[in-house]
Design brief:
78% of the residues lie in helices and 0% in strands. It has 257 residues and is mostly helical. It has one domain. α1 (2-20) runs antiparallel to α2, α8 runs antiparallel to α9 (161-169) and α9 crosses α10. The two termini are 34 Å apart.
């Protein structure tokens, strides 16, 4: 019972964080490991966890989602193809190999999250400093080229995908509409998670019971995070997540090597 409550309330936190900016599974993944779930299973199960939350967040952002131009749905094509490649690679990764990969993956995600504001700033500087305004379709093509490798990463591991996706959406005309960007990010994440689940469905890597419990909390957190007002300093949250991510990477690294 206590185990299930931890999963549920952790899911609420993960969902709220993902709805606002991303990085939630940098909290959720260590919790799954602490509860005794093997790293490879925790990673595959994370798709079940984040799917309801991002659906809930997309519903919460629905009035902004309606204002996103329809051509941006083209981004779902490279997202789906990339996630198939990533999930297939994950399916053929052994438990032992993944245990060796995971410290580096978590550290990579934590570093991305730490430097996201700088990445965001540089992207916006590039956009506003440009003398020529990019056409909408051309910018979507450029972002599509970035989404494909990101989706491979998302299908294989996924932690950190959301905030990197937000940074790249800064290249588009949505850059001045953060809620529309978040809404589109949630839809793309739903596409990647659903595609990954389809690829991993028969692999026996997904812990359905624990994933659905945490996913239920994620749904609550995702919807609440999308419609609510942030009460906690994003800077404080960022510091906590980065510390947890780096600490987890070091712990798993020492355990694996």
């Amino acid at each position: 019972m206590v185990h299930d409550l931890i999963l549920f309330f952790s899911g609420i936190i993960v969902g709220a964080m993902n709805a606002v900016a991303g990085g939630g599974m940098l909290i959720g993944f260590p919790i799954l490991l602490a509860l005794g779930m093997p790293a490879l299973v925790a990673n595959a199960t994370s798709n079940i966890i984040v799917l309801p939350g991002n659906i809930g967040a997309a519903v919460g952002y629905r009035k902004y989602l309606k204002r996103v131009p329809k051509q941006y749905l083209l981004l779902l094509i490279p997202a789906a193809i990339g996630s198939i490649i990533g999930a297939t690679a994950l399916r053929h990764t052994s438990f032992t190999n993944f245990e060796h990969y995971i410290p580096g993956l978590i550290l990579f995600a934590a570093v991305l999250f730490a430097f996201q504001p700088l990445l965001y700033k540089e992207i916006h500087k590039h956009i506003h400093g440009s003398k020529k305004r990019q056409k909408s379709l051309r910018s979507i093509i450029y972002v599509s080229l970035a989404v494909f490798p990101l989706a491979i990463y998302g299908g294989y591991f996924g932690a950190g995908f959301g905030f990197v996706m937000l940074a790249f959406l800064g290249f588009t005309k949505l850059r001045n509409h953060i809620h529309r960007m978040n809404a589109l990010k949630c839809v793309i994440t739903v596409c990647i998670a659903a595609t990954s689940i389809a690829c991993l469905y028969s692999s026996h890597l997904i812990n359905w019971r624990q994933g659905l419990i945490m996913g239920a909390g994620n749904l609550v957190g995702g919807y609440s995070g999308a419609i609510g007002v942030q009460k906690v300093s994003s800077h404080f949250i960022r510091i906590v997540i980065v510390i947890i991510g780096i600490s987890t990477a070091i712990y798993l690294g020492l355990r694996s090597y």
